[in-house]
Amino acid sequence: MKLRRPSLPYIAWMVVFTLIPILLIGFYAFTDSNGAFSLEAFGKAFGYMNVFANSLWIAFISTLICLVLAYPLGYIISRQKQSTQNILTMLIMIPMWMNFLLRIYAWVTLLQNNGPIDTMLSFIGIHTNLLGNRGAVILGMVYEYLPFMILPLYTVMSKIDNRLVEAAQDLGANKSEVMGKVIFPLSVPGIISGVTMVFVPSASTFLVSQYLGGTNDIMIGDVIDKIFWSDHNTGSAIALVLMVSIFAFLIILNFFGDEEAIS
Amino acid sequence: MKKFISLVLALIISLSATVVLSGCSSGYESEINVYNWGEYIADGSEDYVDVIDEFEKEYNIKVNYTTYETNEELYNILSSSNSSYDVVIPSDYMIEKLIKEDLLQKLDYSNIPNYDDVMDKFKGLSFDPNNEYSVPYQWGVVGIVYNKEMVKETPDSWEDLWNKDLAGSILQFNNSRDAYAIAMQLCGVNPTDFTKADIDKATAKLKEQKPLLKKYVMDQVFAEMENDQSAIAPYYAGDITTMMDNNENLGCALPKEGSNLYVDAMCVPKSAQNKEGAEKFINFMTSPEISKANSDYIAYATPVQGAYDLMDDEVKNNPLIYPTEEYLDKCYTFNDVDKDIYAYMQEQFVKLMS
Questions:
Q1: For residues B173 and B180, what is the distance between their CA atoms, to the nearest angstrom?
Q2: Is the ipTM of this complex over 0.90?
């Protein structure tokens, strides 16, 4: 592809704020504290294997829940008349205008002992700790990232030509066949970008587990946050391993769709 | 809808542009850049004095005030960026580190006459033994805050943070240095002089505590304790007072083993552009009225004798804020830990949590 002059500022931006930082992380990851080549940092990074596994697992479950919740909603919205669609997508976006941390604080208040949800549940005789466990972390993630799943799904589905649905019906397809053979295949690009937009940030996020989780729910983002201050090299190595595993995930995801999630 | 979104964006952009532009107006003689902890100065809210405003009016020097959350953040800015700060307020061990790495300037104490009023016990501290680089700002000790409804016997030892009866409602620092200091005291290790083997001992002690804990916390401790969510936690004395003001079920105690005495002090980095203005600022902050105003606001203790004398008796006699000399003798002040040892401690702490 030929580069055009208008793209130069973007390229400069990418080089300064994306490429150089990544190279720096790579440099730190492969050196020791004296700047000499060393794989020690990776050795230490793999000491956090269980945290990696935890984070990817939490991200996977959150993404799956988001997909299950968002898919029907995206479909329903895309079948409304235009003005209703606008209102509904607006409603989905409004919570995102609020600061991310504030929304997490709100969940802490909602879920705490004698908080609103606990009080309601105790009326029907249920009383447990709602906060401080993995379920709460996943809830927080789903809440945080659900809009990022709904919006791409809705966008792709609203572009599906209604005549294709009518044609399928004319040819005798029932509702589930229309869904399975027309809508679903055409919505795969939306699924892929939705999954990418939810999985990637939720695997690398931090603070959510610190606020909603217990003593065992630390995520890899928190580990990087803590380790980086005292040991740049190990912090960078962990970040690099995380980047590579997310990249691998995106490549695998790409096999499922025609449109590319990474390009 | 697109129109609406672009409208909102345009509004945000123009608003932020106005803020940036209005920041350029001058009329001041000179400027100083002050870099302090968040929420660590009386800011004029409620009935408190607006300290920075007072300074600007009195000296006609503009203060560019920014804040940080951890000593390490401050260290990274001072050691690896070109930004220039005229006054910074690190804690004890960080000052020692900054002096060692030649990042601080010697002060000219003749420009800081109020320094004479600083209590003798805050002069010649281990991080600045010859009083060359720093002027104490505020200090305090780490104490225990507990919920009187949930904890039956008044706590008097760090050991009470390992109390099995309180399993599931104990909090611990989410900060390796503070958490390890407590564990080390209980293991008979000096928290200011330890080896990797000592760290392992303390790790074992912390591992024992983990199943009893609700959470590792920093600022979240406020919500946890003020809303009766947890029973007991170690935290900084000034902040405990704030929590107690907001929840009358809370009580406080000092551990009989002694505790960490922390001192935050004002320093001038090598990169400062306006040392003269910086020293004026430091002197101003050390005056009795201003130091008292800051202590009133953040509820930490003042090292300035004149400010202490102005305090209400209720505050002066609060053993949590101003512990007795006898208790202070049992306390220790953090020193700079060798980089390797510190990284090892941090690593063990993260492993403990995973």
A1: 9
A2: no
